[in-house]
Amino acid sequence: RFPADDRLKKVAASLPDETALILVMPPSYKNRLLPGTEQAFVNRACKAAVSTVAQAHARTSVVDCPLHTSENRNPEFFFHTLHYRQPVAQAMEVDIADAIHRVGPFKKKD
User: Could you read off the pLDDT of 18-38 as tens digits, one per residue?
Assistant: First the structure.
């Protein structure tokens, strides 16, 4: 269980209809989430919790940064296994912009 899960659901549910909510699951360096490790298990559980948060607000999109990209295999792009540098952030920008477009513009109901 994630302590912030319930609070995030409440925040998401309280957002005005016209507000877009973009939840980002950032990437990590390639060897941090090896299959079968505790970190990989916690990561999957966290993603499941985030998906329940996303259900609390209609205009929500989740950006789940992929684990297997050229960016997250390059040690020069990370300060350490969790904190990435500008090239990774720039790659994420495209996914975040796409997520904003997916939730679309708000249309008031007449």
Answer: 999 999 988 887 767 777 888
Residue whose entry in the numeric block shows the structure tokens 């789940």: 64
- What is the pTM (predicted TM-score) of this model? 0.81
Rounded to whole angstroms, the Cα distance separating 100 from 63 reads 10
From the number of C-beta atoms within 10 Å of its C-beta (0-12, 13-18, 19+), residue 7 rates as exposed
Q: Which residues of 24-42 are buried (b: 16+ CB within 10 A; e: fewer)?
A: eeebbbbebbeeeeeeeee
Given a contact cutoff of 8 angstroms between Cβ atoms, the answer to whether 46 and 55 are in contact is no
For residue 108, what are its two tokens? 């008031």
Residue type, 31: N
The candidate with the shortest Cα–Cα distance to 88, out of 36, 22, 24, 39, is 24
Look up residue 67 and give its DSSP letter. Answer: S
Nearest to 20 by CA among 109, 98, 76: 98
pLDDT single digits (tens) 77-105 = 888 877 888 988 888 898 999 999 999 87
